[in-house]
Each structure stands twice: as structure tokens, then as C-alpha cells.
């Protein structure tokens, strides 16, 4: 109050007066100069708000209508009565001046607007747009609200503002989108107020919470007796635990003494003013109350310890003062705004007088109040006052501004052992819009992993992961790629250097969903095939060294196939001893081995092996079968499987399938070479797609 009285005499601004008190307060606490600069005068903006041009603003920005004048008078009555009844509370943030120096009631600064962009119909899209589009400016005085509150249109024009500017703009968009949203004036921690996220985990790295498996309680479950335990062993175990606990305490004390990066205690903890958004349940199927930090766009629970208290809230229709105790932060607060004990409403929505004590409601509401005690006598009759329309012009955001929200070209956010960079769409030639770098230490010197996100690429690449330790790169593609690619992992785009390719198998005829290939082997995995094949493994031999020295490429000199293995799921329509589980084609040794599925009661699987006859030359069109080159073990089979004619027919089919399999392997090799050629060409000639509905982007693309 002394600062406020001095303001009337010396005609200083509230922020300048309180700034003097803050400097004295910090001197009394004997804080070092670096902390003082960080808590009070750090991050001062180079932008001069006094130099902005207000000549072209509408008349509603420069003058007040008779309704607004009456509203300001009622706000003064309310504020003076509040100050009289709650002398220990800080003054309300209720009618600051706008960019033209005209006092405006805070509720009339909120301009509900629904912008014509699908993402801005949801709270997450609105929050992301606001925190990306605007540049954060700290409050001039960290423990008092600002003396001015500019219109959302001016804030959008200059793309910068403090927490109150962020909040009013975000609340305007949320209310326009149908949410029950409110601006909050309260207190928060230093990290929230200064947009310091270096101690937080990056949202991109947070794993979704695991849902616990529900156990089906069974009252008839057998209860087994507890294992007997020795009292002596329990005593010895307790002694060991005490020793380990004492040792751990000593280690923790040493760690605390040696820790350097741990943040110091904030001398202004609990005093730092902040503004954020409150969203109540009910509208837009919001299940529960939550906060939105406008600086980050993140969702917070009302029990979050970062938010330390609330002074007041408002929307475009009313203003509420919090009458609850905030000693425990916002954990115990009730957000039932109809509760007149917890929230003091300015304009009664039920046309009933306020719950603040009144003495006499006989005086006219238009009388000016010079003495706070007279405010008690004039409280009540104007509670049915109708809020005037917002003085702010219609909020407009062009498509170019929506697609390019970063005024500085990019946005960089530092997290705990991570750094997140954001760009606007089409800002980079390769379509890069976001990059997350994960580090091994908090100083961010050693890179562990890099993740990149892309937009509008014609090759449908949308994410790339690079492991800096192994140099393994994984590309992820959206559906619709000409080669039906879903993911591609590699260390080099050279052939036979270790590639793992995933496909959208539902779009392929053969049901292939994954293939791994290197210089010596290839493994393919299938899904949903009619022949129940799920895995195929191929082993390759070494090429002729003479061909390698001659420089013959992989496509002209295929690798020799040593062995082909295939694995099948169980076909319930066949007997187990006729349903093949595994078959092996040893191409070079000319051996075919079949292993059949097991029935539920069987323990040993049936097998058939066809071997080459020793001393007999192999002919391509000849099938030679004898008891010497056939080994079978079919203990559960019928008599027909023991017939040589049946084995001859089976061997004939297997020879034909082996020939087809070898061709399929060659086709798979050719497909892998084609994939690598296409991917190398796509990376060398990156093209970005432009929507036919985006006139601005089409013009930019032509240029």
C-alpha cells in the first residue's frame, strides 16, 4: 500500500514503484547479483512498445462507450470494496490500460473467435498455435501484474507479449471453439514464469502410461499357506538394511554437496505473478478441470505443484475473485464458480446481490465512491448489469501466418538432456518441421539420438530416427508410397550393407510386411497368407572372387543360394502329420527336409528328408527316389504316407516349388535393389507437395 500511495504523489507507474521495492527486498535477502538479474531484470525485450503505431486502430480502442464507462465505475466500486474487506490481499487486476492508454475492463478484452482452421477447433491446436506464434516477454516486475493489457489483435500483429497477453489470446480462441475457458491471474514457480524447461522431460520422450491389467477376483481361489520364516534371519536382514540405509544417506549427502547443476532456491517463490488458462468440464465433452500454460501449450492438472495460487479469473461475461486459502497451492481449490463462499462473483448471474456483507443498498449505483466504507452501502443493486461487447476488433489470422507461426524462422526449446527445434512448413527444402536431439548429459555435449519430423514430402517420409552411437537410420513413411514402404532401417544406402524394410502388407499380394537383408542372409516375414507361411529365411554363399575383382555389381552377379527355410502356421483343416511346420531346401547339398506340426497329444514331430544319392550325377528334369536317399520318421502317420508312390509325388512337388522359390528369392533381391535406387533418388531430389487449396503456397511454389 505504501507503494500505491507513493504512486499518487510522485505519479510513477505501478511497475516502477514496485520495482524499487523489489530491489530493496533482494538487497535485504543479500542475494548475489546474478540471481537478482535473473529474477528481476533478465530477458528484457529489445522491442519498444511505446513506439507502436496506434493511429490506424478503431475508435473502440481509443475511447469508451457509455456502457464501458459505467462498467469501469462498477469495477472501481467492486475493487474498492474488495480492498476494504480484504486489506491483506493484493489489488485486483481488473481494468488495466490498453495500447492507446485507455482503461478497459479485462472481460471486454476477451474476444471469442473461431478461426477457420481444423486444428484450432481443439484446445491442443489453439495452445500450440499461441505458444509457437508469440514470443515470450517476461513481466517488468515479477511480483505484480502488468499495468497494461493490449488487445489480442495488437499482440498478433507484433507476435510478442507477456503471460497475460498469451492468456487472453488463447482464452479468446478456446471460448470461440466452444470451451468453457477462463483467464487466470495467480502465482507460479520460477520455471513456469520464466519458461525454463531445462529440468523437464521433453513431451516427445514421455511414454504413455501403462494401463494395469485388471485381475479377476475369484473367491474360490486356493489360499496357499505362507512360507515359514526364521526370526533370526529377519533380524539379520533388518540389520543389513539399516547399514545400507546409513551408507545411502552418506552418499546422498555427498552428492548434494557436489551437485552444481541443481537449481537454487528462488527467493521470490510464491510471489511470482503468472497468468494461465482454466478449462472447466461440461462443454466440448471435457471430462475434468485442467490448466493450460500459454507459454508452452501444455496440459496441467489442477493439483500441479507448479501453480501456487489464484487471485482471480475472468471470461468474456464475468469476473470472479478467489476467496479460498492457497497455502497448499491449487491442490485444494474448488472450481465450482456457483459456490459464493469459494468465489466472489462481480455480476450475479442469478440477479441476486453479492455475498459480500452489505449495510445499505439504498444509494444510487452511479454515485462515485471516494471512501471504501461507502462502497459497502452501494453494493448490490447493479448486480444485473449486462456485460458490453468486446472493444477488440475481429481476430484474423491469414493462412500464410497460420502456416508460418515462427517470427524468427524457427523455435528452439531446451529440455533436460534434450533439445527440440521447430520450423514452419516449407521453411526447409527437405520438408523438415521438427527435430529432437537427445543427449547423454545435461550439458548437451554428446548426442545419443536424433529424431526428425517432416511434412508435405512427395515420398511420404514423415519421421526419421538416427542413432548416433550405431549410425543406424530409420525412415518412416505414410501409406501411399509407390513401393508400399512403411519403414526402412539402414546404415548406408549401399546394397547388402544391412537393410530392414517394413511394408504396408495389406496392400501387397504376397502379404510381406518385413524383410531383412545383408551380405549373407535374407529374412522375410508374412501376414495373412492362405498357405499359412509366416517366415522365410535365405542363406547366401560368397560370390566368385574373380567377379568381385572385375567390379561386377550385385544386380549382374547374384549371390549363390545355399539354403532356404520356410515356417508355416498350423492349418486346422489338415491333419498334423500332413501339415508342414518347417521345410528346408539345402540347394547346394541337394537336400530337402520337412518337419510336420504336432497334435496336442504328440511329443515327437514327423519328419521326411530327401537326400542326394552318393555317386549319382544330378539331372535337372530327373527325379530319382529310392530308400537310400529317403529318411522318414512318421510314427503317427497312416499307411498311405509310407507308400513310395506318395513320397515320389511329394518329392516331385517339392522340386517344382524349390525352383519357384529360387526365382522368388531373385525377385526379392531385385526388389531390394530397386528400393535402394528409388530411395537414393528421392533423397537426392526431394520434392514437396503443395495443396491445391493453398493459394499462398501455390504462388510461393511457383516463385
Automatic annotation (TrEMBL):
InterPro entries: CEPT76/DRC7_peptidase-like_dom (IPR056290), DRC7/lobo (IPR033551), MORN_DRC7 (IPR056291), Papain-like_cys_pep_sf (IPR038765). Residues 349-360 have a biased composition (Polar residues). Residues 234-264, 349-373 are annotated as: Disordered. It comes from the Eukaryota. Residues 273-346 form the CEP76/DRC7 peptidase-like domain. Residues 243-256 have a biased composition (Acidic residues). The keyword Cytoplasm applies. Residues 408-691 form the Dynein regulatory complex subunit 7 MORN domain. Keywords: Cell projection, Cilium, Coiled coil, Cytoplasm, Cytoskeleton, Differentiation, Flagellum, Spermatogenesis. One of its GO terms (biological process) is spermatogenesis. GO terms for cellular component: motile cilium. It is found in: Cytoplasm, Cytoskeleton, Flagellum axoneme. Belongs to the DRC7 family. This is Dynein regulatory complex subunit 7. It comes from Polioptila caerulea.
Amino acid at each position: 500500500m505504501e507503494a500505491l500511495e507513493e504512486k499518487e504523489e510522485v505519479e510513477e507507474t505501478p511497475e516502477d514503484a514496485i520495482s524499487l521495492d523489489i530491489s530493496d527486498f533482494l538487497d535485504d535477502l543479500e542475494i548475489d547479483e546474478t540471481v537478482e538479474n535473473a529474477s528481476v531484470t533478465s530477458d528484457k525485450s529489445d522491442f519498444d512498445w511505446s513506439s507502436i503505431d496506434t493511429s490506424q486502430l478503431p475508435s473502440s480502442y481509443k475511447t469508451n462507450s457509455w456502457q464501458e464507462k459505467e462498467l469501469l465505475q462498477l469495477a472501481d466500486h467492486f475493487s474498492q470494496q474488495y480492498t476494504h474487506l480484504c486489506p491483506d490481499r493484493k489489488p485486483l487486476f481488473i481494468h488495466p490500460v490498453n495500447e492507446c492508454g485507455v482503461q478497459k475492463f479485462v472481460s471486454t478484452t476477451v474476444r471469442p473467435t473461431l478461426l477457420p482452421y481444423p486444428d484450432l477447433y481443439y484446445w491442443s491446436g489453439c495452445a500450440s498455435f499461441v505458444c509457437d506464434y508469440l514470443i515470450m516477454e517476461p513481466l517488468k516486475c515479477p511480483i505484480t501484474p502488468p499495468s497494461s493489457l493490449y488487445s489480442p489483435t495488437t499482440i498478433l500483429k507484433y507476435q510478442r507479449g507477456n503471460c497475460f497477453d498469451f492468456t487472453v489470446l488463447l482464452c479468446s480462441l478456446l471460448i470461440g471453439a466452444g470451451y468453457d475457458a477462463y483467464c487466470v491471474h495467480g502465482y507460479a514457480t520460477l520455471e513456469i514464469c520464466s519458461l525454463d524447461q531445462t529440468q523437464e522431460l521433453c513431451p516427445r520422450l514421455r511414454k504413455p502410461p501403462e494401463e494395469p491389467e485388471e485381475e479377476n477376483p475369484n473367491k474360490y481361489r486356493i489360499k496357499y499357506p505362507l512360507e515359514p520364516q526364521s526370526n533370526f534371519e529377519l533380524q539379520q536382514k533388518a540389520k543389513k538394511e539399516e547399514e545400507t540405509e546409513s551408507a545411502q544417506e552418506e552418499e546422498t549427502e555427498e552428492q548434494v554437496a557436489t551437485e552444481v547443476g541443481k537449481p537454487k532456491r528462488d527467493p521470490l517463490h510464491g510471489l511470482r505473478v503468472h497468468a494461465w488458462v482454466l478449462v472447466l468440464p461440461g462443454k466440448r465433452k471435457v471430462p475434468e478441470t485442467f490448466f493450460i500454460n500459454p507459454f508452452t501449450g501444455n496440459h496441467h492438472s489442477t493439483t500441479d505443484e507448479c501453480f501456487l495460487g489464484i487471485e482471480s479469473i475472468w471470461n468474456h461475461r464475468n469476473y470472479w475473485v478467489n476467496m479460498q486459502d492457497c497455502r497448499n497451492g491449487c491442490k485444494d481449490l474448488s472450481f465450482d464458480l456457483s459456490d459464493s463462499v469459494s468465489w466472489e462473483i462481480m455480476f450475479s448471474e442469478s440477479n441476486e446481490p453479492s455475498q459480500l456483507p452489505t449495510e445499505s443498498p439504498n444509494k444510487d449505483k452511479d454515485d462515485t465512491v471516494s471512501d471504501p466504507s461507502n462502497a459497502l452501502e452501494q453494493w448490490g443493486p447493479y448486480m444485473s448489469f449486462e456485460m458490453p461487447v468486446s472493444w477488440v476488433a475481429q481476430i484474423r489470422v491469414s493462412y500464410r501466418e497460420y502456416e508460418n507461426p515462427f517470427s524468427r524462422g524457427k523455435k528452439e526449446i531446451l529440455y533436460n538432456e534434450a533439445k527440440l527445434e521447430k520450423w514452419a512448413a516449407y521453411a526447409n527444402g527437405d520438408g523438415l518441421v521438427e527435430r529432437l536431439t537427445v543427449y547423454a548429459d545435461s550439458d548437451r555435449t554428446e548426442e545419443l539420438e536424433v529424431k526428425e519430423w517432416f511434412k508435405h514430402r512427395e515420398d511420404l517420409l514423415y519421421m526419421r530416427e538416427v542413432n548416433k552411437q550405431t549410425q543406424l537410420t530409420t525412415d518412416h513413411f505414410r501409406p501411399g508410397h509407390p513401393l508400399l514402404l512403411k519403414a526402412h532401417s539402414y546404415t548406408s544406402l549401399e546394397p547388402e550393407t544391412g537393410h530392414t524394410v517394413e511394408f504396408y502388407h495389406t496392400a501387397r499380394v504376397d502379404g510381406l510386411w518385413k524383410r531383412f537383408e545383408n551380405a549373407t542372409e535374407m529374412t522375410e516375414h508374412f501376414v495373412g497368407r492362405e498357405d499359412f507361411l509366416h517366415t522365410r529365411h535365405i542363406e547366401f554363399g560368397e560370390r566368385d572372387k574373380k567377379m568381385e575383382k572385375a567390379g561386377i555389381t550385385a544386380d549382374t552377379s547374384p549371390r549363390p543360394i545355399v539354403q532356404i527355410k520356410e515356417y508355416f502356421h498350423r492349418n486346422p483343416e489338415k491333419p498334423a502329420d500332413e501339415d508342414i511346420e518347417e521345410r528346408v531346401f539345402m540347394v547346394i547339398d541337394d537336400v530337402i527336409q520337412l518337419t510336420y506340426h504336432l497334435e496336442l497329444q504328440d511329443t515327437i514331430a514327423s519328419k521326411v528328408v530327401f537326400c542326394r544319392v552318393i555317386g549319382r550325377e544330378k539331372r535337372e528334369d530327373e527325379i530319382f527316389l529310392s530308400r537310400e536317399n529317403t529318411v522318414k520318421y512318421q510314427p503317427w502317420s497312416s499307411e498311405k504316407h509310407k507308400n513310395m508312390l506318395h513320397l515320389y509325388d511329394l518329392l516331385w512337388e517339392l522340386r517344382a516349388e524349390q525352383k519357384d522359390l529360387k526365382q522368388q528369392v531373385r525377385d526379392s533381391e531385385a526388389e531390394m535393389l530397386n528400393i535402394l535406387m528409388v530411395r537414393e533418388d528421392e533423397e537426392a531430389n526431394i520434392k514437396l507437395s503443395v495443396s491445391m487449396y493453398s493459394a499462398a503456397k501455390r504462388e510461393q511454389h511457383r516463385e
